[in-house]
Write the structure tokens for this entry.
Amino acid sequence: MEKVSWCQYYKEGELYVTAIILAGGKSLRMGYNKAFLKYGVKTFIEHQIARLTKIFDEIILSANDASAYAYLNLPIVSDVISGKGPLSGICAGLIRSTSSHSFVIACDMPFLDEKVILCLKDRIDNYDVVVPQTSRGLEPLHAFYSKNCIQPIRRCLDEGRLRIIDFFADVKVRIVCEQELNGLDGSTSSLTNLNTPEEYQKYLDHMISDERKL
């Protein structure tokens, strides 16, 4: 196994972490590629990149249609095994990542909050997965994963076990409960994803309402 420089994973005493945006979903309920839904003049994925750039030094896109995202000028990886869902995209991103841990986020989460992301990052320690849990359950598409997850994920893909949480039993997992996030203003919104045209319209109405309050 190739040795990795300690300083590659740490920058100025802090853990160096990559962000991986999953943009390979079929968006069946939305009827339109959710990455390219717009608020203002920017698409969802452009808003995400703008926020993530403030936190991460490396951003990777996991998408099977590289040409559609080429204009973003970011590294793009395709699924390790096509047709296997987000688990395959996570695996591809982790393989490409130059850091020990990566923050994985779905492209349909437009309310990303820096405080929530940093709260999760601060809990990495020696864990392979740091995942928030709300009343809806675990939120594995807004979570941190280490490179130690690659082989367990590959086994799940080979065995046809495609739920993201299927490999959790084989790695060290830190669940960040809702109570730990409650003190953060953006805790609820940061974990919100949009799946339908109705949810998208509600999002637009919410953003317009917030602008009017300013």
Q: What stands out?
A: The longest strand covers residues 17-22. Residues 15-213 form a domain with the Spore Coat Polysaccharide Biosynthesis Protein SpsA; Chain A fold (CATH 3.90.550.10).
